[in-house]
Write a structure and sequence with these properties.
The complex is a heterodimer of chains A (376) and B (585). Helix content of chain A is 35%, strand content 10%. Chain A has 376 residues and is of the alpha/beta class. Chain A has two domains: 230 residues, NADH:ubiquinone oxidoreductase-like, 20kDa subunit (Rossmann fold, 3-Layer(aba) Sandwich); 129 residues, Irregular (Cytochrome-c3 Hydrogenase, Chain A, domain 2), CATH 4.10.480.10. In chain A, strands 2-1-5-9-11 form a five-stranded parallel sheet, sandwiched between helices. In chain A, strands 3-4 form a two-stranded antiparallel ribbon. In chain A, a hairpin with a 2-residue loop joins β7 and β8. Chain A is globular and about 65 Å long. Chain A starts with 14 loop residues before the first helix and ends with a helix. In chain A, 59% of the residues are buried. Chain B has 585 residues and is α+β, with helices and mostly antiparallel strands. Chain B has one domain: Cytochrome-c3 Hydrogenase, chain B, CATH 1.10.645. In chain B, α3 runs antiparallel to α4, α4 packs antiparallel against α7 and α9 crosses α15. The two termini of chain B are 38 Å apart. Classes of the chains: A alpha/beta (376), B alpha+beta (585). At the A-B interface, α4, β3 and β7 of A face β1, α4, α7 and β5 of B.
Chain lengths: 376, 585
């Protein structure tokens, strides 16, 4: 179908309406309450979705299967997205006889991917990081007889929109830890845009990051709805939709009451504030406490697990040891306070940056009494 | 003729399989994982208590099993296994158990079954009558993203995810399993919600997998006791008509009876002379080389009661007596049929070694094999050395039990526990073999899938019982975790079965209390192992050898859709993300 200029996917839902719904409700509510509006916006859409997986654990796909509400195919159907390529859902395999591709696009996944990327006009979702090593060859991750890096470059080049799902694809994540495989996220490597794969391989396109280890399926489905409707969701400095990643986990944590009355856990399962057990909720920007997980039943701190800031660009290295407080000197090593704060939260995140820097600067081992008085 | 499948889809990606077809049959096979991740090296010098959170991110499917193997390694290193509260062990059991059935359902419906809706079978099952009825069922149920079974499996997976979330905080990536116990304290409403989820999961399994019988009825007659003949008599009594659409679940033809009948050449063709069948019981075994393989399982699920049925805290760490540590036993059975008539051997953890002769890693010096705690390996760093046709061809290492490559997973577990249904089936198949031709191997695509279905049913019943009888509601005095004090300069081992098979985490802690070595051998490391220094193939390679492109042998042009090879590879439920977690430098 021919896409007209300036009329990419039908009339756009207004940004205000989208953000109001996306910020307040889960994907189900959004898709139900906005059904006529969304339907009108995407009536003529024939959006194809190409989902590639690089170096990762597949957990973001699993998260989508576990917790999508409605389940993933219905959700994608509701926003009229056609899941054209995803190796977990493909009937096809990559197939070669005597080294040459055989069969057709209904049986050979490599031919299918070629035909989709050649045709263009698809939303590219990338899960997993993009390894460049060893020695720039990309051979630490290969698929279909070529480095994943090459597959990514071709698919990104022709995509109409790009969404990075999970912290590996967004920033490198756990796959980038210690830089053993020279892995990068799509648009970032940690907090650096210049080291991101797009920039490394000379590609220039907007990328929406949906981090999280794993990412929450609501975040992804709503973002895809935004992409289809062309609403133009607001992003923060690290490419994350502010509708989902605009507030701190700590600020609406279900255990916030315990923090306020100085009730600290000294052991797991005590049931109080987890900050003393290394909770990074004060450094993590995500709406987990209000959105929650697996159909809205629970989230990490509610179940007694310290937040590990899995949505942040420098996850995991900057947030380990997981069970030690952020002020702990062993996290910081030889870095000065400014550098450490920059690693932990990124320079731009002013509110929490100040918060963390203050803590580091005064070497506090407990809660800052002044802040308590000043901030609440 | 050389056929390469790359990537093998519908499993955690980056798997490449190459076979050489000679006169229509596979003469050699290479199975390879084409990704290097470096998890073990990332853990060096890190805080040991971080390992469960870190290592569960090896695999988005089996994250609770990785977390459990990791806390077992840590708790054994720090001598804390005896104090872990039983309420924590119960929650770990339920979380890992839910992970098993979710993995199995996902594998059965999203991974394996869609290949039965392949055009190969549309062509083979095109005669009017039973053949077409069968094809209509296969395509109507199992087609990717549209089959009735496929779609209801998606709903069930979501429901299991919800149950995992209730107890685990979220799934995957649950923070709940930690050294010392668990972080959560389940409330009355959590337990109630969990029961609701289990009821929905059981309904799915009953209506979809079984069709007519309840889970209890099926298991009481095939698993717990009953006559040996029950399953086959039951299948033969189900209505079958050439003219009416009788092959429906509410007529008893649930997905498991349908599979058990029509994917068995022995039953459908040899015994009943039906015109429609797919011979998966003659496919993907080790008919030529059964003495070259073993079936290995480490056991799983903490025993939380003593011999008198009372709750006890703590568990036995891995020792030479692995067989007694868990509710589901550990065991090793050599691959020939006569060995299943006697009890399984105990597992000796000291016999587990890894080799890298065909893997993209090097050992220094003259070492050719190494136990996990003292492996010396480094990934190849010269890109030219990483290729498809070299002696080294995979990022997966080659684990061996002594000298033996081992199949791991549901079939290995059911063989090692001498599970009634699977042993009966294997004996029936075996009796059909003549001295001159072993048509029906004990391990096959068929027995692997029946084992996976049967285990799903057994475990769903067990998890419901755990929730009913073992999971208690949080109260003031109840403990869910105990402090774990680090002990410098020690080692720990965590060996459990994960959904896809035997999983081991090995940990070494240095004098300062930091990790000095962390080694993981995942289930797919066993199953998708490349060759070793003596050119012994891994299980998937061995199962492919001697097979062909379809269950009926080589058909013209079938190299462009070699569905027989897909069945064999997928019957192992490979997870390359786990297998290539890799390696310390």
């Amino acid at each position: 179908m021919k896409i007209m200029d300036g009329q990419k996917h039908g009339p756009a839902i207004t940004r205000r309406a989208f953000l109001a719904a996306a910020g307040a409700a889960g994907a189900t509510a959004f898709l139900l309450t906005n059904a006529p509006q969304v339907a009108a916006a995407i009536a003529n859409s024939d959006t194809k979705l190409v989902w590639l997986r690089g170096a990762g654990c597949g957990g973001c796909t699993t998260s989508l299967l576990n917790g999508g509400n409605p389940e993933v195919l219905t959700a994608l159907n509701n926003i009229t997205i056609d899941l054209s390529y995803h190796d977990e859902f493909n009937f096809q395999q990559g197939l070669f006889v005597e080294g040459s591709p055989v069969g057709d696009t209904t049986h050979n996944s490599n031919l299918l991917l070629d035909s989709l990327t050649n045709a263009g006009n698809y939303v590219l979702v990338v899960e997993g990081a993009i390894p460049d090593g060893p020695g720039g060859s990309g051979k630490y991750c290969m698929s279909g007889a070529m480095p994943f890096k090459q597959i990514f470059i071709e698919a990104a080049g022709n995509a109409s929109s790009i969404v990075a799902v999970g912290t590996c694809a967004s920033y490198g994540g756990i796959s980038r830890s210690l830089q053993l495989t020279d892995s990068a996220g799509v648009a970032f490597s940690g907090t650096s845009r210049q080291q991101g794969a797009m920039s490394l391989y000379g590609l220039s396109k907007n990328v929406i990051n949906i981090p999280g280890c794993p990412s929450n399926p609501d975040w992804l489905i709503l973002t895809l709805a935004d992409v289809v409707t062309g609403a133009g969701i607001d992003l923060d400095l690290y490419g994350r939709p502010t509708a989902f990643f605009g507030g701190l986990v700590h600020d609406s944590c279900p255990r916030r009451g315990a923090f306020d009355r100085d009730a600290w856990d000294s052991n797991f399962s005590d049931g109080n504030c987890l900050y003393s057990l290394g909770c990074k909720g004060p450094l993590a920007f995500a709406d987990c406490p209000t959105r929650r997980w697996n159909g809205g039943v629970n989230m990490c701190t509610q179940s007694g697990g310290p937040c590990i800031a899995c949505v942040e660009p420098e996850f995991p290295d900057a947030f380990m040891p997981f069970f030690q407080r952020v002020e702990s000197k062993s996290i910081i090593g030889d870095l000065n306070v400014d550098a450490a704060a920059k690693i932990i939260v990124g320079a731009s995140v002013l509110g929490v940056g100040i918060h963390a820097v203050k803590r580091l600067a005064v070497g506090e081992s407990g809660r800052d009494e002044n802040e308590k008085g000043g901030k609440k | 003729m050389r056929i390469t499948i790359d990537p093998v889809s519908r499993l955690s990606s980056n798997m490449r399989v190459t076979v050489e077809l000679t006169n229509g049959s596979v003469s050699t096979a290479n199975s390879a994982g084409m990704s290097y991740r470096g998890f073990e090296q990332m853990l060096l010098k890190k805080e040991p208590l971080d390992a469960p959170y870190f290592t569960q991110r090896i695999c988005g499917m089996c994250s609770a099993s990785h977390a459990t193997a990791s806390v077992n390694a840590i708790e054994s290193a720090f001598e804390a296994t005896g104090t872990i509260p039983k309420d924590a062990l119960v929650i770990r059991n339920i979380l890992t158990g839910l992970g098993w059935i979710k993995n199995h359902i996902e594998h059965i419906y999203m991974g394996f079954m869609p290949d039965l809706a392949d055009t190969t079978y549309q062509n083979a099952l095109n005669s009017p009558g039973l053949s077409q009825l069968l094809w209509n069922e296969l395509t109507g149920r199992f087609s990717i993203t549209s089959g009735s079974a496929y779609l209801s499996a998606l709903q069930c997976i979501k429901l299991i995810g919800r149950a995992e979330g209730i107890l685990g905080g979220r799934s995957p990536g649950s923070p709940v399993i930690v050294p010392g116990g668990v972080t959560t304290r389940p409330t009355e409403s959590d337990v109630y919600e969990l029961k609701l989820c289990m009821s929905g999961i059981s309904s799915f399994l009953q209506a979809r997998l079984l069709g007519e019988l309840t889970i209890d009825e099926w298991l009481q007659n095939t698993h717990d006791a009953g006559t040996k003949e029950f399953a086959y008599n039951y299948l033969q009594g189900l209505p079958m008509s050439n003219t009416n659409p009788y092959l429906t679940p509410d007529n008893g033809w649930g997905d498991m009876p349908l599979f058990m009948m029509f994917c068995s050449k022995m039953l459908a063709s040899d015994t009943l002379s039906l015109p429609a069948y797919i011979g998966l019981d003659a496919l993907g075994g080790y008919p030529l080389d059964d003495q070259l393989i073993g079936f290995l399982s480490y056991g799983s699920f903490y025993a939380v009661r003593d011999s008198t049925g009372n709750f006890v805290d703590g568990y036995t760490p891995v020792n030479e007596n692995l067989a007694t540590s868990y509710q589901m036993p550990a065991g090793f059975t050599p691959g020939s049929m006569q060995n299943i008539l006697t009890a399984a051997d105990k597992v000796d953890p000291g016999l587990i070694v890894e080799q890298v002769a065909a893997s993209f890693y090097n050992y220094s010096g003259s070492i050719t094999s190494a136990p996990p705690l003292s492996g010396q390996t480094s990934p190849l760093t010269n890109a030219d050395d990483i290729g498809y046709d070299n002696t080294k061809y995979s990022f997966i290492k080659a684990p061996r039990y002594g000298l033996v490559p081992c199949e791991v997973g549901p079939l290995a577990r059911l063989i090692n526990s001498r599970e009634r249904l699977i042993i009966d089936i294997m004996q029936k198949l075996y009796q059909r073999n003549s001295a001159s031709s072993a048509t029906y191997p004990m391990a096959s695509v068929y027995t692997r899938m029946v084992a996976r279905m049967q285990e799903t049913l057994v475990l769903s019943r067990t998890i419901s019982q755990w929730i009913e009888n073992d999971l208690e509601i949080s109260s003031n005095g109840r403990k869910y975790s105990m402090p774990v004090s680090k002990v410098p300069g020690t080692t720990g081992t965590g060996m459990i079965d994960a959904p896809r098979g035997a999983l081991g985490h090995w940990l070494k802690v240095d004098g300062s209390g930091a990790i000095s070595n962390y080694q993981i051998i995942a289930p797919t490391t066993w199953n998708a192992s490349p060759k070793d220094g003596q050119q012994r193939s891994g299980p998937i390679e061995l199962a492919l050898t001697g097979s062909s492109t379809t269950p009926s042998g080589y058909l013209p042009n079938s190299e462009t859709d070699p569905v027989g090879l897909y069945h064999i590879i997928r019957s192992f439920d490979p997870c390359v993300a786990c297998a290539v977690h890799a390696i310390r430098r």
